[in-house]
Amino acid sequence: MAYRPEPADLSGVELPAELLALTEKIAENVHEVWAAGRIAEGWTYGPVRDDAAKRTPCLVPYGELPESEKEYDRRTAMDTLRFLIAEGYVIGKKGSGRKGVTEEFRTLCERVFAGGDPDGVLQDDLLGVILRFIAADGEIGQAEADTVNEWLGLAFTAAELRAIWEKSRAALGQSFEAGLAEDVARLAADDPARAADYRRLVTLACELLAAADGVLTKEEQAEAARIREAVK
């Protein structure tokens, strides 16, 4: 049977502006990798392609390539980015936009907890959300630990947060979502404005943690959806 390639349908995937700007850099690197491979195989520059003599006019810096060759590398770069997005990954520069969002997080914390939390319920729920999210994909990285430390004024290593998660995971199972929903509902009945701030605080925590390492995995996406559903 003849082989029929079936590449993923990426026609409906749009790249955000910041990734479009990155396309040219990736395309240049694609060319550099290709050129390094050709040179390693014994190819040299020649004005006309000659497979037998291993000569090609494309063994030049990316900026000197004809536009048709650059476009090939651009398509490779863009399709790679589109494929990652189609698979559920979110790509972003580490720490980009973090300062302003972190300030929003702190402001929300001040507003929410200024109203009191005598039993520590809201704080425990927030910490539970954080632990569940960063452990959703089975890995807790130092970038995530650094983000949590920045929020809470702590100094946990990734290993220490993993140990805390292992001790807490039974209590933060499926019943956690129901308990979180009940706690938010009680808060909304007493203080709707404060409940709205708490909902935003919880969802913002997920957004910040996803941005910490620049990648939102499918597991983290699913966890964020469960958390949003619990606090809606």
Which characteristics define this entry?
mainly alpha, Globin-like, 9 helices, 232 residues, two-stranded parallel ribbon, elongated, 2 domains, 2% strand, single chain, 64% helix
In short:
It is built from nine helices and two strands; from the N terminus they run αββαααααααα. The protein has 232 residues and is mainly alpha-helical. Strands 1-2 form a two-stranded parallel sheet.
Strand content: under 5%
Main β sheet profile: 2 strands, parallel
Order of helices and strands: HEEHHHHHHHH
By helix and strand content, what is the structural category?
A: mainly alpha
Low-confidence stretches: none
Identify the strand order in the major beta sheet.
1-2
Number of strands: 2
Radius of gyration: 24 Å
Q: How many structural domains can be distinguished in the coordinates?
A: 2
Provide a count of the helices: 9
Oligomeric composition of the shown chains: single chain
Instruction: Please give the alpha-carbon distance between the first and last residues.
Output: 53 Å
Quick one: overall form?
elongated
Helix content: 55-70%
Mean pLDDT: 85
Commentary on this structure:
- The protein has 232 residues and is mostly helical.
- The chain has two domains: 17-86, Globin-like; 98-231, no CATH class.
- The chain is built from nine helices and two strands.
- The chain has helices at 17-40, 67-86, 98-114, 121-134, 142-152, 158-168, 174-190, 192-212, 218-231; strands at 44-45, 55-56.
- α5 runs antiparallel to α8 and α7 runs parallel beside α9 (218-231).
Question: How do the helices and strands line up, and which of them pair or pack?
Answer:
Layout: H1 17-40, E1 44-45, E2 55-56, H2 67-86, H3 98-114, H4 121-134, H5 142-152, H6 158-168, H7 174-190, H8 192-212, H9 218-231
Parallel strand pairs: 1-2
Helix pairs in contact: 1-2, 3-8, 4-7, 4-8, 4-9, 5-8, 7-8, 7-9, 8-9
